[in-house]
Hints:
10 helices, binds magnesium ion, 3 domains, Phosphorylase Kinase, domain 1, alpha+beta
Amino acid sequence: MEDENMGEGEEKFEYEEVVKATENFNPKRMIGKGSHGIVYKGLLPRTVAVKKASSLDSLHHDDNSNKLQNEIRVLSILRQSPHVLNLLGTSHDSFGNKLMVMELLPNGSLHDWLHGSRKPPPSWTKRVEIAMQIARAVEFLHEGKPMVIHRDIKSTNILFDSHMNAKLADFGLAVMVGSVVESPPSQPAGTIGYIDPSYTSSAKLSPKNDIFSLGVVLLEIISGRKAIDVSKTPASIVEWAVPLIEREVVEEICDGRVAVPAYMAGGVGEIVRLGGRCVSEKEEDRPCAREVVMRITDVAERVRYPLWRSVVMRSIAGMVGFTRNKRSKLFLNTSSHNTSSVITVKQVLSLWD
Length: 353
Ligand SMILES: Nc1ncnc2c1ncn2[C@@H]1O[C@H](COP(=O)(O)OP(=O)(O)OP(=O)(O)O)[C@@H](O)[C@H]1O
Ligand SMILES: [Mg+2]
């Protein structure tokens, strides 16, 4: 089978170059630490992020370096996507321990933004945009050949680039399905609060596991509440939000720190209900990633062009006038008659909703 997603091949960096770039993995250059990797900022000569398996003891080190190798294997078969972390290259030390060189995502994680106290919480337009970007990342993985199931979608693995675009990172647990370089069969894995409760054996691996986690992230984005918050009852965001969605009181789910603008209330409600469907107990009741993208894109477009758009469009139409030709095209009659801008009836009507 041909792998359509196949990347163009990452660069191989000399280990000495990486050591120099990170000042010998100087703790001052550490920008993140997860359960299996430590991430450093480096200059190669562009600014990059370098991930190294953490090594508490030899047993954990082997497990952590397997995860890192798996991450490199999966990321190196993916084409570039604006919504997925970009792998730049690899390196290894004299013992063969791999290092991953990736684009630097310098603006923290979604978890920091929603739950940290540093910045004001994201606006509602930004929340819709983040939801759309992450849904697109998941669609990219699920619709690719081979299909990639991420298995660890959560707000700490969603990072922001220099333009504050959200990207899905941390492919340590990801599996490729239907590939010549198929990942070995894996035991269920993920993070408490995000893992699909029906993913109980390796045979139950499915893209719908990611959809469940995506649903948790959608509810987290809208509510500003953590996936698991032991100071609240119920502690699980799913157990808290689903009954509220069923009682049709979605406004109680919305993050009270930022008022929802009236023109966005409908769209935000749609995303909450979509999140509720993603965390359905039965897999078959969950939408696929393509549908999630379609629905959020629809909300995002309405948010981008709210009601005033139709007023402006009507005024422009009134000023310049439209004439309809036989082929059902509308000619926009501008004052300059040298060129006529042609737009289809559908395009105009779509601006009119
Ligand atoms: N490309 C990057 N640019 C900037 N910071 C990054 C980058 N990649 C990772 N980080 C930071 O390092 C942290 C750990 O990275 P990552 O999530 O990949 O490691 P992990 O060990 O797999 O974590 P987990 O605990 O989720 O298994 C991230 O939460 C983030 O703060
Ligand atoms: Mg992580």
